[in-house]
Amino acid sequence: MVAQKRSLDDASANRKAKKVKTAERPATEIVQEVDFPRGGGTSFTPLEVKAIRAEAVKEANDELFEESALQQDAQKEQQSKKKGKRKSEANSGKPGAKDEKHDRIRIEHLNYKRLFVGMKIFGQIASVQPLALIISLPNQLFAHVPITNISDQFTALLEGTEDDDDDDNDDDDSPKSQIPDLVDIFQEGQYIRAVVTVVHAQGSTDMSGIGKSRDEVARASRRVELSLVPGRVNAGLQKLDLKSGFTVTAAIKSIEDHGYILDLGLPDVSGFLPFKGIKKNEPKMQVGRLLDTVVVKLSGNGRTCNVSIDSTVFTSASISEVATVQSVLPGTLVQALITAVHPTGLNLQVLGFFEGTVESLHLCPDATEKTYKIGKKVKARILYNLDSTPPTFSLALTEHVLNLGVRAVKNGGKSLVPMRVAYPIGTLLEDAKVLKVEAERGLMLGIAPGVEGFVHISHASDDHIPSLSSSGPWKPGSIHRARVIGHFLFDGTLQLSLKSSVLEQKFLQVTDINAGEVIKGTIKKLTDSGLFISISSTIDGVVWPNHYADIALKHPTKRFKVGASIKCRALMVDPDRKRISLTAKRTLVDSTLPILSKVEDAKVGMVAHAVVFKVFDNQLLVEFYNNLKGLIPAKEVSEIKSALPISFPVGKVVKVRIISVESESNRIIASIRQAAATSTPIITDISSVEIGNIVEGSISEIHKDNAVLDLHPSRVRALISLKNLANHRNVSLVQLRLALTVGDKLDALVVVTRNIEKGFVIVASKPKAKASLPTKGSLSIDTVKIGQIVGGRVTRYARGGALVKLASHLGGTLHPTDTSDNYDTGNAFPAVDSVLKAVVVGVDQVKKQLTLSTRHSRMYPDNIQPIVDREIGGVHDLQVGDTIQGFVKSVVEHGLFVSVCRDIDARVQIRELFDEYVKDWKVHFKVNQLVKGRILSVDPETKKVELSFRTGILTKPLGTLTVGDLQKGQKIDGIVKRIENYGLFIQIEGSKIHGLCHKSELSDNQDADVTVALSNFREGDHVKAYITDITNRRVSLSLKPSRFVEEDFETQEQDSEHLGAIENMSQDEDEGDDSEMASVPSDNEDENDSEGDEDAMRVDMDDLHSLPSPHSSKPAITNNPTLKLSGFQWSDNTRIDEEDKSDSSSEDSEREGPSDKKKKRKKKRIEQDLTADMHTKTPESNADFERHLLGSPNSSFLWIQYMSFQLQLSEVEKAREVARRALQTINFREEQEKLNVWIAFLNLENVYGTDETLDTAFKEAARANDSKTIHIRLASILTESGKHEKAEEQYKRTCKKFGQSSKAWTLFDIEASRKLLPRSLQSLDKRKHLKTISRFAQLEYKLGDPERGKTVFEGVVESHPKRWDLWSIYMDMEAGQGNIQTLRNLFDRIFLLKMTSHKAKSFFKKWLELERRLGDEEGASGVKQKAIEWTQRANS
Question: Are residues 193 and 149 in contact, defined by beta-carbon separation less than 8 angstroms?
Answer without folding.
Answer: no
